[in-house]
């Protein structure tokens, strides 16, 4: 039973355009959501997060949107840069539970 | 401030052997979690330790175990290794002030042959 789903295994975007990565969750108890970026041979690094009391959080080129009624969140990267090419993981947490991760989306930004 | 340190970075073991992986969290972090990453499966939670006590456990067989020491350093052990245990094992630590945001180490790449 996959509680956090990233249905797109990969995404290719032209440099300078917007990248939109999507994530769906099934557990209503989740109240905190995070995005991590992972390069090969490195551990995931924290990118941006959002609490369930908000519907948007912005940090520079990165914006996360949360739609609680649809149990859906998305990460927008504008403008996309070649250095953004990595695997992006969506993660969720509720209460004192450990982070639950999606399977990741590989983003390729083409110059 | 030093990040999460995992040792060794790479390991090759034979089926049936056992292995111990080590994780040193960021100074001041008392929670340590372990994850297994395999191709196409994302990060699957193994267990979490806080103040030397296992606080949460994922859905892995008993061959997977862990512990945490008084200095918050953690080890995980896998006994009777199987080919399917080949994976990247990631350790993450978090602070009491922000328990949800986890900081990951570079991982240990375990190959079972």
Describe the secondary structure blueprint for this structure.
The complex is a heterodimer of chains A (111) and B (113).
Chain A: E1 4-5, E2 10-14, E3 19-25, E4 32-38, E5 45-51, E6 56-59, E7 62-67, E8 72-77, E9 86-93, E10 100-101, E11 105-110
Parallel strand pairs in A: 2-11
Antiparallel strand pairs in A: 1-3, 3-8, 4-5, 4-9, 6-7, 7-8, 9-10, 9-11
Chain B: E1 5-7, E2 10-13, E3 19-24, E4 31-38, E5 42-50, E6 53-57, E7 64-68, E8 74-78, E9 87-95, E10 98-104, E11 108-112
Parallel strand pairs in B: 2-11
Antiparallel strand pairs in B: 1-3, 3-8, 4-5, 4-9, 5-6, 7-8, 9-10, 9-11
What distinguishing features does this structure have?
heterodimer; A: 111 residues; 6-stranded mixed sheet; 5-stranded antiparallel sheet; B: 113 residues; mainly beta; 7-stranded mixed sheet
Quick rundown:
The complex is a heterodimer of chains A (about 110) and B (about 110). With about 110 residues, chain A is an all-beta fold. Helices cover about 0% and strands about 55% of the residues of chain A.
């Amino acid at each position: 039973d996959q509680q956090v789903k990233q249905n797109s295994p990969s995404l290719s975007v032209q440099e300078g355009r917007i990248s939109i990565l999507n994530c769906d969750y099934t557990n209503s108890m989740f109240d905190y959501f995070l995005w991590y970026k992972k390069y090969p041979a490195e551990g995931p690094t924290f990118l941006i997060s959002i609490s369930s009391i908000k519907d948007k959080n912005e940090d520079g080129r990165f914006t996360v949107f949360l739609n609680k009624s649809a149990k859906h969140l998305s990460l927008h990267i504008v403008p996309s840069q070649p250095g953004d090419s990595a695997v992006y993981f969506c993660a969720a947490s509720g209460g004192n539970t450990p982070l639950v991760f999606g399977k990741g989306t590989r983003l390729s930004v083409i110059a | 401030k030093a990040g999460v340190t995992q040792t060794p970075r790479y390991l090759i073991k034979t089926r049936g052997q056992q292995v111990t992986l080590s994780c040193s969290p960021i100074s001041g972090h008392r929670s340590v979690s372990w994850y297994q990453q395999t191709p196409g499966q994302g990060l699957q939670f193994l267990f979490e330790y806080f103040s030397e006590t296992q606080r949460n456990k994922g859905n892995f067989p008993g061959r997977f175990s862990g512990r945490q020491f008084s200095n918050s350093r953690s080890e995980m052990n896998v006994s009777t290794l199987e080919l399917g245990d080949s994976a990247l094992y990631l350790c993450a630590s978090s602070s009491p002030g922000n328990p949800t945001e986890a900081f990951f180490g570079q991982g240990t790449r375990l190959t079972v042959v």
